[in-house]
Amino acid sequence: MKVSRIAYFVLLASLLLAACAPKSTEPQPPEIVYGQDMCEECGMIISEAKFAAATLLTTGEALKFDDISDMIMHHMDHPEDQVKAWFVHDYKGEHWIRGETAYFVKSDRLKTPMGGGVAAFENTAAAEAFAAGMSGFIYTLDELRVAIHEAVHG
Fold first, then answer.
1. Which residues contact 91 (CB under 8 A, 6 or more apart)?
2. Residue 125: how many CA atoms within 13 Å on its side-chain side?
3. C-beta neighbour count of 17 within 10 angstroms
4. What is the pLDDT along the chain (154 residues), one digit of tens a residue?
5. How far apart are the first and last CA of the chain?
6. What letter does residue 109 receive in the DSSP assignment?
7. Quick check: pTM over 0.85?
8. Residues 89 and 53: beta-carbon distance below 8 Å
């Protein structure tokens, strides 16, 4: 009986400590319900994780996109939106990564939901290998934003 009481108190103490632990202050990507959620820019249903993207605004609002290029275009057209964090999916692993640290490959040979031809990668080696196979170019987020702006506005 003493062992079960000790186990009970250890469990209770662990739960209390976990509840009191500091929460992460890092911005988190929104949950996307594939096949249901719609792209903020084009209104189409978001269906492919490897191309999905999102931004978290300083207001706390999360915007979801079906294509990385749609995310870039949306914020080009809405400069009043103050972006706190950019999120994209790693093309290979399809897990969320921060856009600010991602490597982007843009290629006319890459078929994406809205034809932007952009894929994101967590590391340079993966981006370089993909770019070589797709005759693509590698960009940082800021470089990609400039490239898309120049392509649209000349």
1. 50, 105, 119, 120, 121, 126, 130
2. 0
3. 9
4. 455 666 555 555 555 555 554 556 889 999 999 999 999 999 999 999 999 999 999 999 999 999 999 999 999 999 999 999 999 999 999 999 999 999 999 999 999 999 999 999 999 999 999 999 999 999 999 999 999 999 888 7
5. 78
6. T
7. no
8. yes
